[in-house]
Specification:
The structure holds two protein chains of two kinds. Chain A is of the alpha/beta class. Helix content of chain A is 43%, strand content 11%. The N and C termini of chain A lie far apart (59 Å). By secondary structure, chain B is an alpha/beta fold. Helices cover 38% and strands 12% of the residues of chain B. In chain B, helix 3 links the parallel strand 4 and strand 5. The longest helix of chain B is centred in the middle third of the chain and has 20 residues. The N and C termini of chain B lie far apart (45 Å). The chains are: A alpha/beta, B alpha/beta.
Chain lengths: 385, 368
């Protein structure tokens, strides 16, 4: 099979993490960038946090492919670039869904990617925080075993049905491991920035990477099918207002799903604002109208409002579900709605920095079928005619 | 002598009966209490105005989806209650509300406060698969015996303030052996007594033996010491804090659900807490590396300093923490020493000024 993309086969010793680290160290020492933003083991050893690292020696504490995602990487990039770039070239090592969210945030004006080189790695998924935090030691073991075999069962439910676990084209440089021969990784540049890293290191980009390509293709198809089946099942559970209400009935209105969401960037959500605080009289009136009002009120309104605001950019990362104290399947619900909404607009979150956000672009010809099916319009049109 | 109403029903039935009496006789316009919603076992606080809806009420259900002190603040922040309503809440929720009122975040006007001696609540995670219902017989048995129910939240196991301080009406639960047949209701205020006047039940005046309560308090105190040891928060130096908060994901949900954290926009969510490119560049130069979110411990320390005079140890922070950090123990440990230093017990007395808003020339002479 002839490869469709250009890439480099990179010899690495040890596991994926070791390989990625060695490559990043080499590139850092060769001046391909000034610093690396990368998940790093915290001193207590039981979690990771994004750190910006300049010194090669400090990179040893980094963990390019950690078992968990305590913070979505897009938020980390936004945090360090939102208030202006710093004339330092930074390579950010993250998972594909984090890179996709980063691209969406850049389009939303919440990240500046000018000096950022996005580096992604084929992703085996991440474990739910609660599973991992029960025992980091056991978690590490489970993750290592599962990720070696691309077994996504112990991972977040949305990871288990993720069909965009590899290169998405929005990153600058991708590290492929799936289907790569032992002791090798595949480096695939997706932009001029990525190519320049490889050429600075004197790496050829003409290697035959077809075994990685077919490995990715095979798993993508498998996951697509799984995703469809899972979404179809979920759809029957949540469709319609009654089922949706039931799905969110346990919600305690803490809005943590919104706070950990990489796309929800508003400093103050409408639903946390004064606009959603009412007079005593209003609450009592609402209670009297139906005999009872749940407090805090407007639970489903919040979720639908959030859905409306971010589903076109949703990358199905599952942070929301991981941070929900009530274990609501909010990540799975949003991944379903996100997929359908993006499909309707012919848009795919994080696919390309050049693809404009659907709601900021008006295309004259789009959604005519919606206008036509709208009875009010058609009645009026008939009258006008 | 304490005035008492005895009803020959179970506690939950008795509370519902009281609520029904109050609503049907127009003594209150609504009742705020836990109520079953949906079919998967979820309960949520609800403002009930129709007596029929009380059928779904679960006033003493051992779960705290929200600290209702926070809810009462939401209800009465913009205006005090314009009509009387009854509220059924736990002692720590009531204490939190008192603290919020002292901070001008609500008003007790027109609120009939019904509380109970409290056997604690289960962790939120147990509500997920509707595991609480099956535990109820065991829970009520422990309440009856005045024991700590297995499986309740650590914050509840360690709670010594299980008797409400400022309730109009207190339902006596802990250590009441006859709970299945008869409920003892203490009428602490004239308002409480007047509103229940005319209810069918036995009104008496009785003296109670406080020994039982002291025994329970002692039990909770030793549970607390045990849990403090287990969670390793005795010495909270910088190393211990680093360790305790190493798993923090920075979601700030602890502040979001905290009844005392009422700021509309937390400093740590504000623009003022963001760092610019110069900061990151400087740190890189100095130390060779910098965290993308460098203020994790700073956030927790500032939160502690802001809430510790008023922390009621309700445990909501722990219950929602995605990283299972024992926040309740850290907060309580710090709060107890701060409150001791000021001789202040949050939520005990509405008239007592907040320590940081009251200046006494003679206090802390040793420090100053």
């Amino acid at each position: 099979m002839t490869p469709t993309r250009k890439g480099t086969i990179y010899l690495s010793e040890g596991d994926v993490e070791r390989g990625v680290l060695d490559f990043m160290k080499q590139a850092l020492s060769q001046g391909c960038f000034d610093a690396v933003l990368i998940p790093t083991r915290v001193s207590a050893g039981d979690s990771v946090a994004y750190s910006l690292i300049r010194d090669e020696a400090l990179l040893e504490a980094a963990s390019p492919l950690p078992p968990i995602m305590p913070v979505q990487g897009a938020r980390a990039i936004s945090s360090i670039t939102r208030r202006g770039k710093g004339n330092k070239s930074i390579a950010a090592v993250m998972r594909p869904c984090e890179a996709r969210a980063t691209v969406e945030l850049a389009k939303l004006g919440q990240a500046n990617l000018e000096d950022i080189i996005l580096v992604t790695v084929d992703c085996p998924g991440v474990m739910p925080l609660s599973d991992y935090f029960t025992s980091a030691e056991n978690g590490d073991r489970t993750f290592r075993g599962a990720s070696r075999n691309w077994n996504s069962e112990p991972m977040r439910p949305v990871c288990n049905i993720c069909d965009r676990f590899s290169t998405t084209g929005a990153e600058d440089l991708h590290v492929g491991t799936l289907g790569a021969k032992d002791g090798t990784m595949v480096l695939i540049p997706s932009s001029g920035k990525g190519e320049s890293v490889l050429s600075k290191l004197g790496l050829s980009m003409e290697d035959n990477i077809s075994s990685w390509e077919s490995g990715v293709e095979r798993l993508t198809q498998e996951r697509k099918q799984k995703r469809n089946e899972s979404h179809n099942g979920l759809r029957s559970e949540i469709e319609g207002i009654d089922r949706l209400l039931e799905s969110f009935s346990r919600c305690i209105n803490c809005h943590n799903c919104m706070r950990v969401c990489p796309i929800c960037y508003c400093r103050q959500c409408h639903f946390d604002s004064d606009k959603m605080k009412f007079n005593f009289e209003d609450y009592l009136t609402r209670a009297k109208a139906r005999g009872v009002v749940k407090l805090p009120s407007d639970t489903l309104f919040f979720h639908i409002g959030r859905m409306l605001h971010m589903s076109l950019s949703c990358v199905s990362c599952g942070m929301c579900e991981d941070a929900c104290p009530m274990n609501i399947t909010v990540g799975q619900i949003f991944s379903l709605v996100g997929d359908r909404n993006q499909e309707a607009f012919g848009y795919l979150s994080g696919r390309s920095i050049d693809e404009a956000l659907p709601l900021t672009t008006f295309e004259q010809g789009e959604f005519q079928e919606v206008e036509q099916s709208h009875s009010v319009f058609s009645a009026k049109e008939k009258q006008d005619a | 002598m304490p005035r008492v109403l005895r009803l020959s029903k179970s506690p939950e039935q008795s509370v519902k009966e009281m609520a029904k009496f109050l609503l049907e006789n127009g003594k209150v316009e609504g009742v705020l209490t836990l109520r079953k919603i949906g079919e998967n076992g979820a309960v949520a606080y609800s403002l009930i105005s129709s007596p029929d809806e009380l059928d779904y009420a679960r006033p003493l259900y051992p779960l705290m989806p929200v600290n209702s002190g926070k809810l009462l603040s939401l209800l009465t922040l913009r205006e005090a209650a314009t009509e009387p309503i009854a509220v059924v809440l736990r002692p720590c929720e009531l204490r939190a509300f008192v603290e919020l009122v002292k901070r001008q975040q609500g008003s007790t006007d027109n609120l009939l406060l019904i509380s109970s001696t409290c056997g604690g609540v289960y962790p939120l995670e147990l509500a997920l698969e509707d595991k609480i219902e099956g535990k109820l017989p065991q829970y009520w048995e422990a309440v009856k015996q005045g024991e700590v129910s297995p499986g309740i939240r650590p914050a509840c196991k360690a709670c010594e303030h299980f008797i409400p301080y400022t309730a109009d009406i207190t339902v006596s639960l802990l250590g009441n052996k006859d709970i299945d047949r008869e409920t003892v209701i203490l009428l602490n205020t004239d308002r409480g007594e007047n509103l229940l006047e005319g209810m069918s039940g036995e009104f008496t005046e009785e003296e109670f033996d406080s020994g039982a309560m002291e025994r329970i308090r002692g039990q909770r105190e030793s549970e607390k010491q045990k849990l403090f040891d287990e969670t390793e928060i005795r010495n909270l130096g910088i190393d211990e804090l680093n360790k305790a908060f190493s798993k923090c994901i920075g979601c700030h949900n602890c502040s979001k659900v905290c009844p005392i954290c009422y700021c509309h926009l937390c400093f740590f969510d504000s623009e003022a807490s963001e760092h610019d490119a110069v900061y990151y560049a400087t740190q890189l130069e100095r130390r060779g590396s910098v965290e993308a979110f460098p203020d994790t411990i700073f956030y927790h320390l500032v939160r502690l300093s802001h809430v510790s005079t008023s922390c009621v140890g309700c445990g909501m922070c722990s219950d929602v923490c995605p990283a299972s950090i024992p926040l309740w123990a850290i907060s309580l440990r710090v709060a107890e020493s701060v409150q001791k230093a000021y001789g202040y017990l949050p939520g005990k007395d509405m008239e007592e000024g907040l320590p940081l808003t009251t200046f006494r020339p003679e206090e802390f002479a040793a420090v100053g």
